[in-house]
Amino acid sequence: MTPQELAQQIRIAVNGAISAGILNLEIADVPDEIVVERPKNLDHGDWATNIAMQIGKKAGLNPRAAAEILQPILEQLPGVEAIEIAGPGFINIRLSAASQGELARDIIAKGASFGRGTQLVGKKINVEFISANPTGPLHLGHTRWAAVGDAIARVLEAEGAQTAREFYINDLGVQMDKFGASVKAAAIGETIPEDGYHGAYIPDLAKEIVSASPEIINLPEPERSDAFRDAAYALQLADQKRVLENFNTHFDVWYSERSLHTSGAVDRAFEKLKSEGHMFVEDGATWLRTSDFDDDKDRVLIKADGALTYFASDTAYYVDKRNRGFDLCIYLLGADHHGYVNRLRALASCAGDNPDDHLQILVGQMVKMLKNGEEVRLSKRAGNIITLEDLVDEVGVDAARYSLIRYPVDSPLVLDLDLLVSSTNDNPVYYVQYAHARIASVVRNAADLGLIPANTADWDPVTFNPSLLTDEREGALLGLLADYPRVVASAAELREPHRIARYVEEVASSYHTFYAACRVLPQGDEEVTELNISRLWLCAATRQVIANGLDLLGVSAPERM
RNA sequence: GCCCGCGUAGCUCAGUGGAUAGAGCGUCUGCCUCCGGAGCAGAAGGUCGAAGGUCCGAUUCCUUCCGCGGGCACCA
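The joint structure predicted for all components is written out below.
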């Protein structure tokens, strides 16, 4: 029995008590969501609900009295072994081993789909992240968004959403020109401009461009500068794509800022804004009256000299996303861009949307890196950046992704490179993966001994007897597994994939505890019992949940390590 | 000055109003002739930055203050 099923049963019981006049309440007074949670202390029971405390006041009862009214009704529920009232009015529920253990069968039947939900079915969601300038390698900060953004999309998909992962390429403007000028300078042996890019990759790019097309050197200006800029851009973008694919982060859409201008998207957006009545001209410039909607000041779209601002691109881009049919546009921004939040929301309003419905901006804090106990200062200009690729080379894709997803993005993250690199065993990802590999090994051994087929799809349900799983550690593990769908749902709702990581660590821990205490396979020439087989079902169910959880993080679940 | 985020064990961090505030690392003590010891069991370690407020109940929500980080362009 899952907590959702239990909550449903409780609702029926409460409504029944109201209809029967035992509780002096209206059906409408029952909360929309009945909370059924794992108590922190499992001595309290398998599940707990605070429903009595929620309805007590409205029913004119103290919470304990309300709980006492519900107790005999809940005790009659199928699969419920005991109901206890505790503390201020908690109702603690203990399930029978058989009822609780049924879950293992359910998990194995559902396989990879166990834990998936439906709260976002029919929703089309655009998840935009990283969106780095194509003027250099992706660095540590980008890496956090790469891991987290992809995991958010995975979690949304697990709840039924149709998503697009999107990378907005800032391929227009002075940064691109500076980048091109830097590469050109390196190619023709001039000093790179002070305000240019000074990373070691610049001369490499120059060399690659010149050797691919030597005649570029002899082009007249300004064609030569443009040619260097565009060639360097193409190489750098290709490099970013390659690195991200290696990082297990696949973008569905690479959206060029330039294309907004050539495709007419800007014009369409301006039409829209004009029709909504928020554009105006002043001092020779064209403005958007974002201050109508909580922005500090109005923003320029077209400068007095006729050039479009970056904000004009932002505006066109948002309107274009909505035109492409996305119900919700999620932006992942670094803390250094949090000043954009109000103006993005305001522009959504100017475009006639309610930003609370169609726009969500997640602001993530910075990543710091410690090396030898000292903070590594990151500067792309100085060229001492830690790149996404460096990190992956050092610790591998799984450990890198996991370490970055494990923490909520709204808190600053300090990664100790020495710890991550030198003693990778301390990384929790190995703890979780180890549990998975360990279970895989047990199941392999069981199959080798002829206890059970190698593939769980071939397991005969008759061989599973959940009523034998009476050890407290078995109960603890089963209860935790039952909680998985709820964890996925809340990770999706809150856009917080780190919850999956934390949960999966708990599962691994609970499994190791079970494993140390409960012998799964028969020893020596002991006879094979129903208990051996039933525990194998529990093992396989645990393996499935760990694999499903790791998959939502884009981390592999190895059969062997 | 204004705006956003953060402040929890020595360190790095969980904990979207509930019961005795948790985990990893580090320190200390036990546990492999048997399914993977990359593991398990246990000990020590806390004024949840401070003060008010709301609530049956606050680490969590609100206000003020202190500390840290980031941001406030007709730049991109």
